[in-house]
Specification:
The protein is 63% helix and 7% strand. Strand 4, helix 5 and strand 5 form a beta-alpha-beta unit.
């Protein structure tokens, strides 16, 4: 086995820690591949990792300044490490982990500090937390105070209610209803079995028969309620999406009407929280934001509708198979002809529509995904300091996705930031001032 240099051992220790390994497993792994006399001690590894973690802070500050103008939308959420809140911020389309602040709490003031480094931030996707909502208000107030007296008022940061949490809540209640149906059906089956047993024994079955009949009627009632709720939930999911069944983009009024109709069919106190979330004005803010961008990108209303419909049928055609794919090709051809008649240069407008719809965000799924990555080391690392979070964030910035639509690219590449090296360890060894100069020249 070739001996590992100390620099390579430091890199291995830092990468392992960034991925969630604690000191003891790292030392055990070294003992497998290195001679016993060359295995670094636990204390030595414990010194290497904090040194790398402290270096990462300066590099991250440079990267944050370099991508200030690239961050327009953030997904915000909090997780807990040993009861301490970690305030998380992730760019939805690139999955760039842009904020990982350890506490001190979840107040509006703390969330305002998280948003302060991003002067071009336009929109925030988050759950219904009061601290987050107050943080957005404080950030908008800070922008107004910082503006020049004669300058135009800055555009406020808008806030959308995360569709991810809303759908999870309605699905949770729906699952509870189906569980009740299952339990009641099992009780009815047992009551029916007792009735049959009484018949076989020649006993009077009227008492158990009445109990079985009531059990079945109750099971049927619960089943009907669950089916009605299932239909309402499907209607809610459709209204929270981007497109109507006809392939046209939802507007707030029809989407709100569909949500209201669905909520009328949800009976019982168990739906109170879900109804409150669905009734909030921020629930459909993703639709408002997309329509605003859409109208700014293309002025002609008929051309806008035609281009969006083309995008919809083209996407459906790519997902179809067999005869449906052939029929989809015909619809695409017809939509292209219509766009061509409305505007000879329709392809330039389609590029804008494609960019808007491809990057449209209605959920904070990205921050939930990064949260799951950060949660993994909770049981293995006793203490995750702010410096350790910075080390994890720097490692994530350069991490190349191995699959999916982002395959082969790192979060920083997807965000639009071109780094001088794709190797996170080489980036960590750079002088922050030198790195800043390189990024500024680009």
């Amino acid at each position: 086995m070739e001996e590992l240099s100390e620099c390579k051992q430091r890199e291995l220790a830092s990468a392992g820690s960034a991925m969630g390994l604690s000191l003891s497993p790292l030392v055990i792994l070294w003992a497998i591949v290195l001679p016993h006399r060359l295995v670094p001690s636990r204390a030595t590894v414990g010194r290497w990792i904090p040194q790398s973690a402290q270096q990462s802070r300066g590099i991250l500050e440079v990267l944050e300044r370099a991508c200030q103008g690239l961050v327009l939308v953030l997904g915000l959420d909090e997780i807990f490490l040993h009861r301490d809140p970690i305030l998380m911020g992730v760019a939805p389309t690139s999955w760039a982990w842009l904020a990982g602040q350890r506490g001190p709490d979840r107040s509006g003031e703390s969330w305002c500090e998280v948003m302060k480094p991003w002067p071009t931030l336009e929109h925030v996707m988050a759950d219904g937390g009061q601290g987050l909502e107050r943080g957005v208000k404080l950030a908008n107030e800070a922008r107004r105070r910082a503006q020049e007296p004669e300058a135009e008022p800055p555009a406020p940061i808008t806030m959308g209610l995360d569709v991810f949490h809303t759908q999870r809540e309605v699905e949770r209640v729906l699952q509870h209803l189906w569980n009740r149906v299952e339990c009641q059906s099992e009780a009815a089956v047992k009551a029916e079995a007792k009735r049959e047993q009484a018949k076989r024994r020649g006993q009077d079955p009227r008492g158990v028969a009445g109990h079985a009949g009531r059990a079945w009627r109750q099971a049927e009632r619960l089943f009907d309620e669950a089916v009605q709720a299932q239909e309402a939930v499907e209607q809610i999911k459709e209204a929270l999406g981007w497109f109507e069944a006809s392939g046209h983009l939802y507007a707030r009024e029809p989407a709100q009407a569909q949500l209201h109709e669905a909520m009328q069919r949800l009976q019982g106190d168990c739906w109170k929280k879900a109804k409150r979330m669905l009734s909030a004005a921020r629930t459909l803010s993703h639709v408002d934001r997309l329509h605003e961008q859409w109208c700014s990108a293309i002025a002609a209303p008929r051309l806008r509708d035609a281009l969006v419909h083309l995008w919809y049928v083209l996407r459906r055609q790519k997902q179809a198979e067999g005869d449906d794919r052939v029929h989809g090709s015909q619809l695409v051809a017809m939509a292209c002809v219509l766009c061509g008649r409305l505007c000879p240069d329709w392809k330039a407008g389609y590029v804008k529509v494609d960019e808007l719809l491809s990057q449209a965000v209605r959920a904070s799924s990205a921050v939930e995904g990064v949260n799951s990555v950060v949660r993994m080391p909770q049981g293995r690392q006793r203490h995750v300091s702010q410096e350790m979070l910075d080390l994890k964030r720097l490692y994530w910035h350069c991490r190349v996705f191995r699959e999916g639509k982002r395959k082969g690219r790192s979060p920083d590449e997807l965000l639009g930031l071109k780094l001088p090296t794709s190797d996170w360890w080489q980036l960590l060894q750079m002088d922050p001032k030198e790195l800043e100069q390189v990024l500024l020249t680009q």
